[in-house]
Amino acid sequence: MEINYRIAHSIPGRLRVIIPALKNNTAYITIERMFSSLKGIHKVRIEPIIQSMVIEYEPAVVGRNMILRYISLYFRQSRFESLDSFMVQAGPDLRKDIFRSLSTGALILVAYLRKGFSPRPDLFVYAAVISTAYMVLTHGENKFRHPDVITGIASMFSLGVSNMLQVAMITWAVNALEIFQDMRRSHRLLYI
To answer: Domain of life of the organism in this record (predicted)?
Structure first.
């Protein structure tokens, strides 16, 4: 499905686009913040009555066609509106943490499913453990006071090295909960 929009006017550094999809999407402030955070875009203003978006940008940094591509991509995803608004509100570091957590969770799932075929750890088990360690150590400020690090260390001592996939699963679950808490905290700070 191609996005319908019409360029009302375009001069270097300023673009007005009429976007009918703005009629169905009322998260104007979120959309303005998201587009304003893009490199080279200085100011975004949505006028819901006429369904237009005015974008002031730096032509040397970002071109008109790239902005139109951003608009097309954003409004094409209207089926995932709740996920979009959630990801827009999350900062870049938090989005990286979410991506790492999802990737690690997928690796752990694959390793767990394959473990039934062989009692010995294979490449997927080691990849899941390494990914979990990387995910934990790249998340947050004070690495050794985080609950996921403490959980990983405690689980390793209590379950043993032979159960490293279970240790990775427990550590991943605690890290996912911690990321969820960070998301809730950033969402609350956004509206204070």
So the answer is: Bacteria
pTM of the predicted structure, to 2 decimals: 0.50
| pLDDT 10s digits, 55-110 | 999 999 998 888 888 888 887 754 444 454 555 556 667 778 888 888 888 888 88
Determine, yes or no, domain membership for 26: yes
1: in domain: no
Q: CB count, 10 Å around CB of 31? A: 22
Domain span at residue 139? Answer: 92-190
Which of 56, 88, 120 is at the close of a domain?
Answer: 88
Place of tokens 């752990």: 108
The identity of residue 52, as a single letter, is S
Q: Is residue 116 part of a domain?
A: yes
Q: Edge to edge, what strands does the sheet with 6-11 contain?
A: 6-11, 14-18, 52-57, 41-47
Burial of 148 (0-12, 13-18, 19+ CB in 10 A): buried
